[in-house]
Each structure stands twice: as C-alpha cells, then as structure tokens.
Design brief:
heterotrimer; A alpha/beta; B alpha/beta; C alpha/beta; A: alpha/beta; C: Quinone Oxidoreductase, Chain A, domain 1; Rossmann fold; 2 domains; seven-stranded mixed β-sheet; six-stranded parallel β-sheet
C-alpha cells in the first residue's frame, strides 16, 4: 500500500539523512526541528504496458480512435519528446519506443506512406544518432533514420512556418512539416507538471521567434510557479495554451499521447536512494557506505561514467491519448497522485541537495549555469501556492559547482559565463543587453544546426529559469561549492551546513525555521 | 572527511547494535513491521534448503534417534499427494517441529516451512537465524487473533510451500491436547489446500514444557501421519476444525489399539476424544504424564 | 493459562552478564542478556474480598525497572521480591471485577506498595496505621508472597502484562477528563510529591534538583506546586530535558558540569577543588534532591549543599558515593520512597490524591512526557529505547499491554 508523502520533523531519533551533491552524496545530520519533505512511495506500475498503450490509442479522450484518423495517402508527422526527459534516462525499452512502434504499426496497416518522425528539440541540442536509436528502438531507427527521422531544426527558415499570432500578439511559428500535416501525433513523457499539454507542439516544435514570447524574464517572474499549470498560476503555461489553441483553431490537428511514470528513480544497486533513511536495512547501510567510499576514491572520469550509466527503472502509471487539453488533465491527475505532498507553511530557510543530472546535461557536464537552473529554477519551483521558503528567506543548496563546461554541448554557455555574468547577474539587464546578440550569433547558430550544441540563446533561458527564485530569496548559499564559480553566479559559498546556517542568520535572524526538500525522487510541495 | 568520523556518525545515527527506531513524526507512516526487520526468505532459497536438509538429515536426525526411541508411521499417506498441504499436529514439546521436519519424506522436506511464534522465535536475529535455517521457519503473529496473523503463511502456500502449524497455538502444559484454534482451518479454506494430520505420541513425556533436552532413558516417541483432509464444498471453518481434531484423535486411537479397531470405532463414531479428564488439576496432570508403553522391536507389518 | 505478560526470572548467568558488560554494550541488555521473557501465565482470580483484577492500559518503565533488568540493583532487595515476577508498578488500568465501592470498568491508578491492608495484616504495623504505607514492615508476610510492591511480587503479577491483581487500598480513581498518558505519570508524580515533602523546604529556600528526566521534572513541578521554595536550580543533561525544565518553572537550568558553579553563585559560597573527585562548596543550597540514581548525581548533591542542609534521595542509590561531606558538613541524608499520606496545611492527604488533582490542571505539560508506547511483544525495543531515553529526547517509555 503506497504511503503518501509527508513532512518529517527531525528529532533525536532521526538518523543522518542523505543529501545529493552533484556526482556524489553525503549523510547530513540536520538540527533538531528541521522539517524534511518526503515524496510519496512509488506507485505500482501498469503490468501490461502494450495493452494499456493499445487501449489508449483506440479509446482516446474527446477524439476519434487513431485508426479512424489514419487514412491512406495522408501526411502524418509524429513528434517525440527529446533526451531531456525522463531523468535519469529510463531502462530500455523506453516508453516512447513502445508507443512509436504501435502507432507506426497502425499507420502501416492503414496504408499511410508519408510519415516523418521529428525529435521535438526546440532550441535544445540535436540528439546523436546513438541517443536517438536508444530512445526509439532498433526497428524504428533503421526504418526511418536519417531521412524520415530527424532532429527539429528551429533555425532552418525553409522548415518553419508562421501560423499566426495569438490574441495577445504572440507569434506562433512552428515546424512547417507539422503545420502542414493532416495529423500530428505527439509522443510525450510527463516527468514534471510543466511538461505536456500545449507545451508539446507549441513549444517543442517552435522557433526562437515564438519562444521569446514566453521564455523571458517577465513571464518567469509572473509564474508562481511554472510547475503549476492551473490557469493564472504559470504565465508560461498560459502563453503555451494561447499558442496551442491558436494552432488548433488554425486547423493543425494533434493526437496527443501522454504518459506518466512512478517514482522508481534509482536502480537496485542504488536502492537506498529510493528509501526513507530510518527504513534502511543493514544491507542498505552497507551498500551506501561502500558506494560512497568507492565514489569518493574514483577519479572524476570514472565517477562521471558511473553516474552517466544510471538508468531509472521507471514504471508506467498512466497513458492517455486524444485531444490535448482533455488528455493533459488526466495526465496531471496521475502525476499529482505520484508527486504531490502537502506541506504546512513556509520556513525561513529551504535546503536542496542538487543531483548530478538535469534536463540539459544528459550525457554531458553540469556547468555552473545549469547548477543555478536546477536549483533556483527547477527545484525551487516544485511548489504550488507558495514557495517553501518565505520571501527574503535563504536558499541553501549542495553542489560542488565545478568550473567545467562541455565544449561541444554548451559552447554559448562558456561565453555567457565568461562575458555576461562577469558584467552583471541581473536577469533583466542581461535580457535587454545581451540576449539578442547571442540569439542571432551565426557561429552559435551554425553549431546548433550542424553540431550538437544548445542554441546560442539557451544559457539565457537557463538564467531566466531561476529569476523567480533569485527574486524571492534574500540569499543563496552553496555548500561545498567552488568559490570562484559560485561567486561568478553571484552567490555565497559555505564549507558545511553549520557554516551555511550561520551565514543565513545574517539574513533571517537567529534560530531560523528550516525545511529540507528531500528530492530526488521528484515531488511537488503543496504549500498551505 | 575522515572515515572514522563518518563511521561514528553512522553508528550513532543508525543505532548500530541497538534496536532500530523510527522518528516520532514518521510513526504514523511506519511500515507494518512484518519481516521488515528480520526477513526469513533467505532460508527458503536453494542454498538455504540444501543447508537445512543437511542439518536435519545429519546431526538432528542422529540426536533424535540417540536420545529417543523413535518410530515413524504413516508416511505412505503422502504418496501421490500433490502439494502443498498444511501439516498440523498436537503440540506438547519443543521436539515437535524437529520430529516432523526430520521425518518428512525428502520432497516434502525440501519445500516445507514451520510456523513459529514471532514474539519468541523472531525477536532477536540469532534465534531467528537458527529457526529459519533449521526449520525454514516463518513468523506467526501470536495473540493478535483474526486472519492478519497468517499473511505470510498464505503467501507461502500460494508459492507452493507446505507449512507446519500447531492448531493448539502453544504447547500443552499437561500433555493433553488443547482446544484447536480456528486459524488453521481458515487458512486451509482460504488457500484451498489440504490438511495432513500428524499425531506425536510421547512428546510430552520425553521433553515436556520447560525442558530443552529430552529426558534420559531413550523414552519412546511415535510420529504418526494420517490421511490428508481436503476442505469440502461449503464447509465452515468450525466444521473443518472439528474434522482436524477428529483426524488427530483417530491417529491416537490407532496408536493405542490397532488400525483395524480404530477404523471400526471411527465408523461407529466412537473414537475416544482427546479431551482431558474432568476433575481437579492434579488429575489432568496425572493422566497426561502417564508413561507411554514401550513397544517391542518394529514389526514387519507396521 | 492465558495471560500474556513479561516475566522476570532467575538467571544468574544473565545477571552477571548484564552487570559486567551491560554498561559497555547496552544493546545486549535489551537483547540476549535480559532476564525477561514474554510468557503465557496462569489465569488470575481475586483471592479474597477486597481484591480485583485489573487490566493495565498503560504501564511505565521506571529507572528502578531498568536497574533490575540491567543487574544493577542491590542484593538487599532479594528477600523483598518473589521470583518470577511480572514487573511494572506505574499503572493506569481498568477494573475487571467490582471491588468494594468501585465497579468493574472504573479507570484507576495503582499505588503499588503491598502494605498491611493488602496483605491482610491485622493489626496493621504502626506505619501503615499512620498512612505511611511506604514504610510498611510487613511486606514479606501475610496473604501474599514476599514483594515490596506490585511489580515485584509473584502472586499479583504487574503492569507489564495483560492482567494483574490489586487490592482496594491500592486503587485511586482517575477522573474522566484525564488521558491515559497523563494518568500513567500519577505514580511517579506522587512519589515526587512525597520527596518534595520529605525535603521540608522552608519558604524562600534555595533548592538544587539533580537530574531532569521524568523524576527530576516531576520533582521540580512538585516543589513549585507544594512548597514555597525560592531559587530552584536544576541540572539537566539533554536538550529536551532543559526545555521541559524551563517550562516547569526552574529559575536556572544548567549542565551537570556547571551545577556547582551555579549553586555557588546564588549562595556566595566558596568553591574548592580536591585533587580527585568533584568540586565542592563550603556553603551552598539549602536542600538538594537527587533524581538520577547515579554515583555522580549523589556526589553532586552532597557537595553543593550548605552545612546542616538536607539531601533527599529520590531514586534507588547507586553505590560508591563518597559520604565524607555528609559527616563533615553535618548534613541530613533523607530517603524518599514511594508515596503515602502527607501532612499538608489542609490536613493529611494521600500523595496520590494530590498528584491526581495537580495533574488534572497540568495536562498539556504532562501529556508530552510519554514519548513512546510499545506493545508487549516489542519489549526489547521498549527497553532499548528506555535505556537511552534522555539522549533520544524521550522522558517516559510505556507499555500498552493490551495491544
């Protein structure tokens, strides 16, 4: 019987608790009285996945069955979520492979010839062929790569089409192939509440001209939070909704397939990472200590490889297909069932342990900008109603923040860190002064289109992602962070939690109330 | 970050060598205790079974035959029976489980687990390890009544494991067979398996409650297996319990007289009850401790 | 034979084991070394008029119980107990039979001393006659086997079991509004009230209370409620204890290492440091009450009291304290054992009645003290928890035997 998430109050009986710290972790003794938010137990997965998928395809919500929508001679485009999801990458077969195979099977039986599969990368980097093969499976890869299975190119003017503008004057410019298809089937994995819904096509297959309307500082500061897609709560979701409805009204027909996963985030050999510490058996404790020792002793390369190879044994908790908004409502219900935790009230200090992986460094390196995005962006915004920390409170995060960048994946980040952040860390100034130049820079565009680099403007989005967090917090302290990188980000370093709390008292006074958000696994705090 | 300090932190925080604790605010969400602290499934893996059979057929068997004058009858009732079954017997001695496990035919012995009281056999790791290894034991929650006490038993039966239970619930204090509790019958009905009665005669005389080693003198002990009872259509657990008591009573009858006489008495409904004599306490104890007559050498036709 | 209970039984090997390695490896004391077992005992029936069976709802684990299990109690007690017995003398329970003026189902707390009234001694010894049942001389004779209290007597069983016997003279009714986890503290609270009276604290006196576990905190509350003590200092080792001590009205809450300094300050005494042993004062508090039961606690109490002052021993003393200050400073060393009738300004009242009255208004504070309850079959967890209660932020650990 899976138990709900809950808030622990640390007492003398509580053992040291596990805190993620990049490509490592530590056992931290928290002061008595600290609140710790724990996610719900992992829900059991659907046992017969192929049948569940088939059922969804043939019994969609608010739309005809897929078989009815497929006709011979039609132009069919399938769009798939890219490598930034799920995290960690899931054990094979990936759920997208399973869904793709069934959709393609149906298409073939219905005599569809004109079929293209686009990886919906928007301005993310192109996926390598190996990465795509892993995601879609051998059969699909060999049948369609590279002519009819390819990464989306947001900088190819011939591949884009300006569909129109929304009521609020937002440009909607998406993949030409998708806009002109008779049917777009979108295969989504909904890891966090921000994914899916209108975001899939309207953002995943959109160009910079569209994206700038919601990927900006103003939208970020008016999303409380962007993980809460209820109307009025997330400005970005509202914008995506306007764009999506615009597309719908313009005649773009989308058959949306969305999936949700349970919380089996880490494999058996790291099983203790999924369990509550006081429920660790002697074996778990031994395993933890052995892993930690081995990890600490390993050279950085080996450590990185070890973490890179972690695959999540995620199980499917739900699959729904049909009309975008109706499907997404069901998806969110499933998601919240697995991830929602009720938390009573805010505290003066919030503590996050940052894991080794985020959406933008899969098979890559987490540079300082991505640390900022993961901590003040994603983890900070995993709330509904109010952030876990009071306005002006302190955010304490654990991460080594190495001054390290992946040369191929993140070239524009390097320059952003060296040039832009050296001058200012204020998001508004950065947006006005630098964004346009990086977005239009031909070198970055070239690397985006031909290499495997994130778009020139992408580091800006990473910076904006944490704008609300930055604005809300009075101080941000990195425990264990490299002083130079942390300073460049505009934050402070502390050697230990005790020092960090000491520093925090400057901002929030003596004896602050504290909350430790014990994620991963992913969860959303419903703060009352 | 010295390893010694880390170890000290872990040792203190996780209470090594002490009983595990749950933080107070996590108590409402505590996992049901179950096998959470001391799982016993390891003893039912292939390696566990091999080790157990070695112990039972080697030293355990040798000790039993050395300390007691032991006879086993009726195993042929198990021939051709498709497992699993619930073995049940009267309970008057710590010898009972050992007697049953050593006397079971090999194929049954490899896939049988004994039900042992959780609060006695499963509270410290070394006692649990011994019980799980030698008897393949699994915990039964005593004193909590109802059907929750036998969740593990059901799991094992569904996996094809036979189990040994003692319907009296605890050892007899005076040698007489106490009232059978209904849990075993309920389990039979729920799992849809048969119940194989076993009578252990002489156990109380050889090693009564309070003793942990048989009395000197190679006292006679007999283990008798009976025919497997299958739950009938629409049978209630009370009726099944009665049939189970009757099964054991018939085995006692057969032992005290002969098979033929016992059969005839059964047909007439005259199997002597196993209930103790009426009257004051001393009379029960007196009857219960009556020595078992020693048999001559094993006769060829028994 | 159907009463499940924890039985304390004779096991010389375990006694020796617990006594020698118990201190170093406390985990073993709750494990294989405990001379305690969960057994099914003979049924009980009230032996004669005035007796009843009681169904314990909550039974506390007391320091004396832990000392007994850990093999640390003095051999002095050996003729005063009858083995095997069921421990547990801090009991709130329900009557199973009618008894005197009380009907079955009434919720009661039990004054555990088995005095003359319970033992059918007629005439009673002078102490029981005067209401001071704790001083009964007849605890080894009469209707029952030897046993200074319920919880040390073979015939009556005790609180750590599903059923026990009690005599009408031992029963005190619990008011309906009082929760079980406050009622289970009535017995130790009554003992603390008795200790506070034994201390004979003159108005305005300074008092040092050594120890801030259950006994220490309840003594502090008793001192504040029933005497007109002046400045009260309490020596508390652990964080949760210090917080409770402040709430209970101590003027000063200090670490045990700093207790002598604190007392010195308030009494303008001279502090001396011997070559070996604890610091002591020439001068000091008027009264000190020792609530830990350790050698260090008694040393502290004896050394920080003014000449002619009084030291009250609230718990079973550990041996080995240096009694030199008792002689040199002409101190009074006074024992306080259980609870009986006290002389109050309003006339003689039984300490249990006083405890129940006071506890009714102190519900919120007292209600926090029971930190954990355990069913009988988790007794090893319960004992292990009770042995480190202070460090774990718990005051009282109790059994809920019916669970």
């Amino acid at each position: 019987m899976p138990r709900p998430g809950f808030v622990l109050e640390v007492d003398e009986r509580t053992p040291p608790l596990l805190v993620h710290e990049g490509e490592s972790f530590r056992m931290q003794r928290f002061p008595v009285g600290t609140r710790v938010v724990y996610p719900p137990d992992s829900l059991p997965g659907i046992r017969d996945v192929p049948t569940a998928v088939r059922h969804a395809l043939l019994n969609p919500v608010d739309m005809e069955p897929l078989t009815a929508l497929l006709t011979p001679g039609m132009k069919l485009t399938i769009a798939v979520d890219d490598i930034s999801i799920p995290l960690p990458p899931m054990v094979l077969p990936d759920i997208r492979q399973r869904i793709l195979e069934q959709v393609i099977e149906l298409a073939a039986s219905k005599g569809v010839d004109d079929l293209e599969i686009i990886v919906a990368t928007a301005l993310h980097r192109r996926m390598t062929s190996a990465e795509i093969r892993r995601m879609v499976g051998e059969r699909v890869f060999r049948s369609f790569w590279p002519k009819d299975l390819y990464n989306f190119d947001a900088e190819d003017p011939d591949a884009l089409t300006h569909v129109g503008k929304t009521d609020e004057g937002e440009d909607v410019e998406i993949s030409k192939r998708a806009a002109e298809s008779d049917l777009v089937v979108y295969v989504n994995v909904n890891l966090v509440a921000m994914d899916g819904g209108h975001k899939s096509v309207a953002i995943g297959l959109a160009s910079y001209k569209s994206l700038r309307h919601h990927h900006n500082v103003h939208t970020m500061l008016h999303s409380r939070s962007y993980m809460d897609p209820r109307p009025g709560k997330s400005a970005i979701a509202d914008s995506a909704t306007r764009m999506g409805r615009m597309l719908r009204d313009a005649g773009v027909k989308i058959f949306q397939i969305e999936t949700t996963m349970n919380a089996d985030t880490f494999p058996e050999n790291l099983g203790f990472l999924n369990k509550r510490e006081w429920e660790w058996s002697a074996f778990d404790q031994g395993l933890m200590m052995a892993s930690k020792k081995a990890n600490d002793m390993a050279p950085p390369r080996i450590r990185r490889e070890f973490f890179r190879r972690i695959e999540a044994p995620y199980k499917l908790t739900g699959v729904n297909a049909g009309e975008v908004e109706a499907v997404h409502e069901r998806t969110l219900t499933n998601l919240h069932r697995q991830q929602l935790v009720e938390v009573g009230g805010q505290s003066d200090v919030v503590i996050f342990g940052l894991p080794y992986i985020g959406p933008y460094n899969v098979n890559s390196i987490m540079n300082p900008i991505l640390v900022h995005c993961l901590g003040l962006g994603y983890l900070f915004n995993m709330y509904r109603n109010k952030p876990l920390v009071k306005k002006g409170g302190v955010v304490i995060m654990y991460h080594p923040v190495p001054w390290e960048f992946h040369q191929i994946h993140h070239p524009s980040y390097i320059d952003f860190f060296e040039e832009v952040l050296r001058e200012t860390t204020d998001p508004k100034t950065i947006e006005t002064k630098f964004e346009e130049r990086y977005a239009k820079d031909p070198w970055y565009t070239h690397l985006y289109r031909t290499s495997h680099a994130y778009h020139g403007v992408h580091p800006f989005y990473m910076w904006y992602w944490g704008a609300h967090g930055r604005d809300h917090a009075g101080d941000v302290i990195l425990v264990g962070g490299e002083p130079k990188s942390v300073a460049r980000l505009g934050y402070r370093t502390a050697g230990s939690l005790r020092d960090a709390i000491e520093m925090a008292t400057d901002t929030v006074g003596p004896s602050p109330t504290m909350t430790y958000f014990h994620a991963p696994p992913i969860m959303i705090a419903d703060v009352r | 970050m010295g390893t010694r300090d880390d170890l000290k932190e872990m040792a203190r925080g996780f209470r090594w060598g002490r009983r595990p604790l749950v933080p107070k605010s996590a108590e409402p969400f505590e996992q049901p205790r179950e096998d959470a602290v001391f799982p016993s499934d390891w003893a039912r893996t292939d390696a566990g079974v091999a080790a157990r059979q070695l112990i039972l057929n080697g030293p355990m068997n040798a000790i039993l035959h050395n300390e007691l004058s032991l006879r086993v009858y009726g195993r042929e009732h198990l021939e051709g029976v498709e497992g699993p079954v619930i073995f049940f017997s009267n309970h008057s001695s710590h010898l009972d489980a050992t007697l049953i496990m050593t006397s079971l035919p090999d194929r049954w012995q490899a896939k049988t687990a004994v039900g042992a009281a959780r609060d006695y056999f499963f509270d410290v790791w070394w006692r649990q390890a011994f019980t799980a290894l030698v008897y393949g034991a699994f915990p039964i929650d005593r004193g909590r009544g109802g059907s929750g006490a036998t969740d593990k038993a059901l799991e094992l039966l569904n996996d094809g494991w036979s189990i040994v239970v003692f319907p009296e619930g605890t050892r007899s204090a005076d040698g007489h067979v106490q009232r059978f509790r209904h849990g075993t019958a309920r389990l039979c009905l729920e799992a849809g398996v048969g119940a194989a009665p076993i009578a252990i005669i002489g156990g109380f005389q050889a090693m009564p409650k309070g003793r942990f080693w048989p009395k000197a003198g190679r006292l006679p002990v007999t283990v008798r297996y009976g025919e497997v009872l299958y739950p009938e259509e629409g049978e209630t657990h009370q009726e099944l319990t009665r049939r189970m008591s009757q099964g054991v009573a018939e085995l006692f009858d057969e032992h005290r007289t002969t098979w033929w006489e016992a059969l005839r008495r059964r047909e007439r409904g005259e199997t002597p009850s196993l209930a103790p004599p009426m009257g004051p306490d001393w009379r029960r104890k007196w009857e219960g401790s009556r020595p078992v007559p020693r048999r001559g050498p094993a006769r060829a036709w028994e | 034979m159907s009463i499940r209970a924890l039985e304390f039984y004779r096991s010389p090997a375990r006694y020796v084991g617990a006594r020698t390695i118990g201190a170093r490896a406390p985990g073993l004391v709750a494990g294989p070394l405990a001379p305690l077992r969960l057994a099914t005992l003979k049924d009980l029936s009230p032996p004669r008029e005035g007796w009843t069976r009681v169904k314990p709802r909550l039974s506390g684990i007391c320091g004396s119980d832990l000392a007994t299990i850990g093999g640390r109690s003095s051999f002095y007690f050996s003729p005063l107990v009858s083995l095997p017995f069921v421990p547990g003398h801090e009991v709130v329970g329900e009557l199973l039979d009618d008894c005197g003026d009380l009907t079955a189902g009434t919720r009661v707390v039990i004054s555990s001393v088995l005095g003359c009234a319970a033992r059918g001694e007629d005439p009673m010894c002078p102490n029981c006659e005067a209401g001071r049942t704790g001083r009964c001389d007849r605890v080894t004779v009469g209707h029952l086997q030897a046993g200074l209290q319920t919880g040390f007597c073979k015939d009556t069983y005790g609180g750590w079991g599903r059923q026990m016997l009690a005599h009408r003279s031992q029963l005190f009714v619990v008011p309906d509004g009082m929760a079980d986890d406050v009622a289970v503290l009535v017995e130790p609270f009554a003992c603390a009230i008795h200790a506070a009276h034994r201390a004979q604290i003159a108005p305005g006196s300074s008092v040092l209370i050594v120890g801030a576990g259950t006994v220490g905190i309840l003594t502090l509350i008793a001192v504040r409620s029933f005497t007109q003590a002046g400045h009260v200092v309490i020596a508390a080792k652990h964080r949760a204890q210090r917080a409770a001590a402040r709430m209970a009205g101590a003027n000063e809450v200090v670490n045990p290492e700093h207790a002598a300094k604190a007392v010195r300050r308030i009494s303008s005494a001279i502090k001396l440091t011997p070559e070996r042993g604890q610091d002591f004062l020439l001068g000091g508090a008027d009264v000190s009450i020792e609530c830990v039961g350790s050698r260090a606690g008694l040393d502290l109490a004896l050394r920080t009291v003014k000449a002619g002052g009084r030291v009250v021993l609230s718990g079973i003393p550990a041996g080995g304290a240096d009694l030199t200050p008792l002689w040199f400073r002409e101190l009074e060393l006074v024992g306080a054992y259980t609870a009986g009738v006290e002389e109050t300004p309003a006339g003689p009242r039984h300490a249990f009645e006083l405890a129940i009255e006071t506890a009714s208004s102190l519900g919120p504070v007292l209600g926090q003290m029971v930190g954990a309850t355990y069913p009988l079959d988790r007794w090893r967890d319960a004992i292990d928890h009770a042995m480190s209660a202070g460090r774990l932020g718990t005051f009282k650990v109790a059994f809920a035997p019916q669970g």
